[in-house]
Write a structure and sequence with these properties.
Length: about 400
């Protein structure tokens, strides 16, 4: 069991809050620079989040500040701890990696704050770091043990054969994956993702998360990936270089964004663009396992050219009278027919959701682009949906969403 933080450490860490608020980003920038001097540590990270926008740098700075501000009330950080623990399982981050982060963080604090970072302050932050690290490591042990105790579970990187590559829309392609070893797959929780280690020729390995877009089963996974022209190359590599018969490496399903095993309330699935992928998995699970649950799947995209998996979702709805499907097109084509291909034009609005779904009685699941999530996380709260019923998935640093 982790020893509680001493009163002296709590007082010192709280006293550093103003310095962290002013210099937090500089500290995390310096920390990552030190951390990435070690190639085997650098290889653990998804460097799409380390680019010019500095999203991960800002997210970590916000997280460290939040930790310092809530050092006496860590219960408020439980959801963040859970999300980080799942990410660590996905990226195969192990206990032996934690000392590298500790050393880099404390050295960065000293580098940025200079003489103001006294030995006393560094010792307090060292104690605070290891307190949190031990909580994370303990949770990660539990998650890994649960995975290994389940049929089809594994640790580390497992090889999967691409048995089907399916063009779903003008921008989204699906990849159906079966284990190369011929064994069963771990039944994922609908909404979870896989983490892949991609190996483009002549380039460093890429780490990417992709939601599983099929319902839980023992046989295969499916991911449905949007080609991002301005991204860091993961989606382009999959679209352009991966064909049927090729092999991809993945860690087990992970993520704290998933449908409950026993839903107690109506469910609203709300997605934008390629954010539909975990929602399709949830919709399939609802039809298979919870057909008594009232569920509303509301999706927004540009038009039928970009709309993936539409036929599959509507077939699910035909087989379940409690699953209601509504689609919004922001720029319908001439051949898109209101009332047939889509039910609304323009963008999904909170007013429409209030009028057409049991919004304030439901669990609401969201996935989509960052502006979509930023808007709806805030609007749902203002509309009276309790915070513990607003669930969202966001791939990448979510500091702004956490703040919202």
């Amino acid at each position: 069991m982790t020893e509680p933080l001493s009163a002296a450490t709590i007082a010192i860490v709280k006293a550093t809050v103003p310095a962290l608020a002013e210099h937090g980003t500089a500290i995390t920038t310096a920390m990552y620079a030190r951390l990435f001097q070690d190639e085997h540590i650098k290889a653990l990270f998804n460097h799409a989040n380390q680019g010019e926008s500095g999203a991960q740098v800002h997210a970590l700075a916000a997280a460290i500040l939040a930790y310092a501000q809530n050092i006496e009330n860590l219960g408020v950080l439980v959801p963040v701890v859970e999300r980080i623990a799942y990410k660590h399982v996905g990226y195969h981050i192990l206990p032996e990696h934690y000392p590298y982060v500790a050393n880099a963080l404390l050295a960065a604090i000293k580098e940025v704050l200079g003489d103001a970072a006294s030995d006393e302050i560094l010792a307090a932050w060292g104690e605070a770091y290891w307190f949190l690290a031990n909580i994370l490591k303990a949770r990660e042990v539990v998650l890994r043990n649960e995975i290994m105790a389940s049929e089809g579970g594994w640790t580390g990187w497992r090889r999967f054969v691409v048995v089907e590559k399916i063009r779903e829309s003008s921008v989204i392609t699906s990849f159906v994956l079966r284990p190369e070893d011929g064994g069963p797959v771990l039944r994922h929780k609908p909404g979870q993702y896989l983490t892949f280690r991609l190996k483009p020729d002549g380039s460093p390995d890429l780490k990417r998360n992709y939601s599983i877009s099929c319902g839980p089963n023992d046989d295969h996974y499916r991911i449905s990936v949007k080609r991002e022209e301005n991204g860091q190359g993961g989606s382009r590599f999959l679209h352009d270089s991966i064909e049927e018969g090729d092999v991809l490496e993945s860690t087990p399903p992970a993520g704290d964004f998933f449908l409950s095993d026993a839903p107690q309330r109506p469910v609203v699935l709300l997605s934008g663009g390629v954010g539909l992928t975990p929602m399709v998995s949830m919709a399939e699970a609802i039809v298979q396992d919870h057909p008594h649950v009232e569920a509303h799947y509301v999706h927004g995209t540009v038009n039928s050219d970009t709309h993936a998996l539409d036929r599959e979702v509507r077939e699910l709805a035909k087989g379940c009278q409690n699953l209601h499907v509504s689609t919004f097109y922001s720029a319908p084509q001439q051949y898109d027919v209101l009332g047939e291909s889509h039910q609304g034009e323009g963008f999904i609005s909170i007013d429409w959701l209030r009028e057409n779904t049991p919004l304030t009685q439901a669990d609401v699941f969201l996935c989509g682009p960052k502006p979509f999530l930023r808007a709806f996380v805030a609007e749902l709260a203002l509309a009276g949906v309790p915070s513990d019923r607003i669930h969202y998935e966001f791939f990448g640093p979510a500091d702004e969403l956490m703040a919202a």
